[in-house]
């Protein structure tokens, strides 16, 4: 009887015989994945070695994760085994295999992007250039199955030892608890567990604004001219030039920057400028930085420009335009991406130079493997801008956004810059760990060298302009490249800020912690103090001043947007919350763990409140009242009936397909329907040039020549290199009997280097018609 009492029940014996080896095999698979991660990072030059403390911590966290999963599945296993023998074994084995695959994919993402994937997994896009390597995962699955097979056989030899582990669930629960307090970093924690935790936080954070204020961000405009102490402004308003450099992080600029040798022009400029040592972008993705820099605006769920709901706001574009500035946005890429074009159109920006504005004299960046070019590289962008005639008097706001330092880093003359990279890392001044990483990623550093050189040339050419001495240059990075590994979570946001001008009293290094959100309030305060601008009475900016008396203002809040739908990072004073971990910041923005529960609770509450406000104001147009806005939105309102029809002929997202439908309707003389669809297309993508031309042509066919000519003249002004615009306008002039205007149009055609047989014929037609009209006039007046 005693022997019988020591034998566990049948389902428990099954658990010990089959389930325990399966759990151990799962654990072995996870450990192999951790080892694969470190080996790959070592091979890429990120780590000094793959056997290190992070690997040991990773194994510890894999132990805890294994214990947690096994604890949950043990009950399922026993339940199914009671239903039918081996059914539990079959299903639980499949679950373990799926979990191995998921962890392998997440580790592959981490190795490629050097960041752990959280709730943002639901919004990953093709533009993020994500690739998953399934080969190592398949190999690890095979190893895991072999481990289970042989371990399962081995249990027969030590069954009596395993039987003493009953009840097994207590062992699992103990292992899980033992690993809870182990230090977690992205490199060492289980990636699946992190993802599940991140999703759970997102699900249970209902993000509902419950405040009483209708406009919770609204506050009186109170200028803080701390920046003015560094300037000696003249009586004439200065030009402002913004250079927003894609992916330029603090790793490249500054005395202690790891890779400063790859940005010699900017580092040289830093020594003659105001330079912020502790500065962060409010976003970890490039597209979201632009509206923050120009407007200190909330993010919404997708980045401000990608929010569907129109929102009244104040930006540098709007305020400075109201105060006599001519505004421009200059970008070598497609301004329709992330709806920049819609944002710029709403702001009434005077000049938009983008991919559609270059013409045949400029060369596109090399196409990637999919046959797609990002646009015109940075040197072409700056050369194009310098070649433009300046027809505008008065101060100017010129904003440049670069693209050459963006994946896939296909710069012109890449061999030349890669050779420069090799020469730099051959010198002993580059640390061995950095040298190894650069060697594996030469194309990244070659692109930094190229863009740095492009900026140096741009500034050198700008010095020859008469207005150079009265221009302020604001240079910053959009965010820190995810392709470059960071030592901590804050690293992805750390970027340089350089303000350079002949108007500066002296160069200074500024220690104040500041962010992109502080640029607009500081620039407006600087100009308003000197020139008494027409400024709004109330503002809703997220930032305040770039300069403060102390390194950390304890009331200063800096929200940080990782990517779409992921606001999990927040700075308050000298504390930084990242996910579920809180850190204390020192004067060099280095992180140290803190156990202050009161601060942890307060910052989490601040983040929850910001997230609720961020969603509320962007979804409901509650940033500021329409009466306070400087934007006059000329946007067509569609009736419900019109929207139903539009959706019946176009229910996708590809506006090119919608244009084809509108063109077919126009050819079938369904002109009103076609114009309605054109209006809808332009409400979504304001700079869809073919749609604008089609609207001009339809009005010509309807004999509404005044409207047609106005539309097409605007097309030619905005897209001076686009042949179809000239062709449509020449037709409109001819049908309207205003051929004399074509003579002036010919100058623009020649100036922009457009060579077209069709345009030559249309121009000859206009000249002949003008000559014929002149003869008729003279005949009728008795001169002949």
Describe the fold and architecture.
With 784 residues, the chain is of the alpha/beta class. The chain contains 26 helices and 17 strands. The strands form four sheets. The chain has an eight-stranded mixed sheet. A hairpin with a 5-residue loop joins strand 16 (581-585) and strand 17. Helix 3 packs antiparallel against helix 4, helix 3 runs antiparallel to helix 7 and helix 24 (723-736) runs parallel beside helix 26 (757-780). The radius of gyration is 31 Å and the shape is globular. The termini are far apart.
Estimated radius of gyration: 31 Å
Query: Helices and strands: which structural class?
Result: alpha/beta
Characterize the main sheet: 8 strands, mixed
Q: Which regions are unreliable across 5 or more consecutive residues at pLDDT < 50?
A: 1-7, 125-129, 158-166, 774-784
Shape: globular
With strands numbered from the N-terminus, the spatial order across the biggest sheet is 6-5-7-2-8-9-3-10
Mean pLDDT: 84
Number of strands: 17
In DSSP terms (H or I, runs of 4 or more residues), the helix count works out at 26
Strand content is: 5-15%
Helix content: 40-55%
How far apart, in Å, are the first and last alpha carbons?
Answer: 136 Å
List the helices and strands and how they pair.
Layout: H1 2-5, H2 10-43, H3 53-83, H4 87-113, H5 134-154, H6 159-163, H7 168-178, H8 191-204, E1 219-220, E2 239-245, H9 264-270, E3 274-276, E4 279-280, H10 286-295, H11 316-322, E5 326-331, H12 340-347, E6 351-353, H13 378-387, E7 396-401, H14 414-425, H15 432-440, H16 442-462, E8 471-477, E9 497-501, E10 508-510, E11 514-515, H17 519-531, E12 538-539, E13 557-560, E14 569-572, E15 575-578, E16 581-585, E17 591-593, H18 597-619, H19 640-649, H20 655-667, H21 671-684, H22 689-701, H23 705-718, H24 723-736, H25 740-751, H26 757-780
Parallel strand pairs: 2-7, 2-8, 3-10, 4-11, 5-6, 5-7
Antiparallel strand pairs: 1-12, 3-9, 8-9, 13-14, 14-15, 15-16, 16-17
Helix pairs in contact: 2-3, 2-4, 2-5, 3-4, 3-7, 4-5, 13-16, 14-16, 20-21, 20-22, 21-22, 22-23, 22-24, 23-24, 24-26, 25-26
């Amino acid at each position: 009887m005693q022997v019988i009492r020591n034998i566990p029940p049948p389902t428990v014996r099954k658990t010990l015989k089959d389930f325990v080896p399966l759990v151990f095999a799962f654990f072995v698979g996870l450990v192999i994945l951790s080892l694969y991660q470190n080996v790959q990072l070592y091979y890429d030059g990120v780590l000094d070695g793959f056997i290190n403390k992070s690997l040991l911590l990773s194994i510890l966290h894999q132990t805890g994760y294994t214990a947690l999963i096994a604890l949950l599945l043990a009950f399922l296993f026993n339940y199914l085994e009671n239903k039918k023998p081996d059914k539990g074994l079959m299903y639980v084995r499949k679950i373990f295999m799926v979990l191995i695959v998921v962890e392998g994919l997440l580790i592959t993402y981490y190795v490629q992007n050097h960041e752990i994937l959280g709730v943002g997994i639901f919004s990953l896009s093709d533009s993020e250039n994500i690739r998953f390597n399934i080969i190592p995962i398949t190999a690890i699955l095979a190893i895991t199955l072999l481990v289970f097979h042989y371990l399962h056989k081995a249990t027969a030899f030590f069954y009596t030892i395993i039987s003493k582990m009953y009840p097994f669930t207590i062992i699992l629960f103990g292992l899980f608890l033992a690993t809870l307090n182990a230090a977690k970093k992205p490199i060492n924690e289980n990636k699946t567990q992190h993802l599940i935790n991140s999703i759970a936080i997102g699900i249970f954070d209902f993000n509902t604004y419950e405040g009483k204020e209708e406009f919770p961000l609204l506050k009186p405009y109170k200028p803080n001219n701390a920046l003015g102490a560094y300037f000696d402004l003249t009586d004439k308003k200065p030009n402002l030039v913004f250079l927003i450099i894609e992916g330029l992080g603090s790793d490249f600029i500054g005395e202690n920057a790891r890779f400063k040798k790859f940005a010699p022009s900017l580092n040289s400029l830093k020594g003659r400028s105001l330079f912020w040592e502790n500065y962060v972008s409010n976003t970890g993705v490039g597209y979201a930085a632009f509206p923050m820099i120009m407007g200190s605006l909330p993010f919404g769920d997708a980045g401000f420009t990608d929010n569907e709901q129109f929102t009244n706001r104040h930006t540098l574009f709007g305020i400075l335009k109201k105060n006599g500035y001519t505004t421009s946005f200059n970008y070598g890429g497609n301004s329709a991406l992330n709806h920049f074009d819609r944002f710029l159109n709403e702001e009434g920006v005077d000049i938009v130079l983008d991919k559609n504005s270059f013409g045949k004299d400029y060369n596109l960046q090399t196409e990637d493997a999919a046959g797609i070019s990002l646009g015109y590289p940075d040197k072409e962008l700056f050369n194009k801008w310098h070649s433009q005639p300046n027809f505008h008097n008065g101060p100017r706001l010129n904003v440049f956004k670069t693209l050459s330092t963006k994946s896939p880093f296909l710069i012109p003359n890449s061999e030349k810059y890669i050779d420069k990279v090799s020469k730099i890392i051959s010198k002993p001044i580059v640390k061995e760990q950095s040298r190894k990483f650069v060697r594996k990623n030469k194309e990244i550093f070659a692109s930094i060298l190229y863009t740095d050189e492009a900026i140096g040339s741009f500034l050198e050419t700008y010095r020859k302009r008469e207005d150079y001495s009265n221009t302020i240059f604001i240079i910053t990075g959009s965010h820190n490249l995810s392709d470059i590994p960071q030592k901590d979570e804050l690293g992805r946001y750390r970027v340089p800020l350089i303000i350079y001008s002949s108007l500066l009293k002296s160069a200074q290094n500024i220690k104040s912690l500041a962010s992109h959100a502080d640029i607009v309030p500081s620039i407006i305060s600087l100009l308003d103090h000197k020139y008494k601008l027409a400024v709004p009475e109330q503002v809703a900016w997220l930032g305040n001043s770039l300069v403060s008396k102390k390194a950390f203002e304890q009331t200063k809040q800096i929200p940080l947007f990782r990517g779409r739908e992921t606001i999990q990072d927040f700075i308050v004073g000298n504390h930084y919350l990242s996910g579920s971990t809180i850190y204390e910041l020192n004067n060099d923005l280095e992180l140290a763990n803190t156990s202050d529960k009161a601060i942890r609770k307060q910052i989490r509450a601040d983040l929850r409140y910001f997230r609720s406000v961020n969603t509320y104001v962007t979804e409901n147009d509650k940033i500021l009242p329409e009466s306070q806005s400087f934007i006059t939105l000329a946007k067509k309102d569609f009736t419900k009936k019109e929207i139903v029809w539009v959706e019946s002929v176009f229910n996708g997202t590809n506006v090119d397909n919608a244009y084809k439908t509108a063109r077919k309707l126009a050819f079938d003389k369904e002109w009103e329907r076609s114009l309605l669809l054109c209006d809808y297309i332009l409400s979504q993508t304001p700079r869809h040039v073919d749609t604008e031309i089609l609207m001009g042509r339809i009005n010509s066919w309807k004999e509404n020549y005044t409207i047609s000519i106005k539309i097409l003249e605007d097309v030619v002004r905005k897209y001076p290199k686009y042949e179809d615009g000239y062709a449509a306008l020449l037709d409109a002039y001819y049908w309207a009997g205003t051929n004399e205007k074509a003579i002036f149009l010919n100058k623009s055609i020649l100036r922009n280097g457009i060579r077209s047989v069709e345009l030559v014929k249309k121009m000859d037609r206009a000249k002949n018609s003008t000559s014929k009209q002149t003869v008729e006039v003279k005949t009728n007046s008795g001169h002949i």
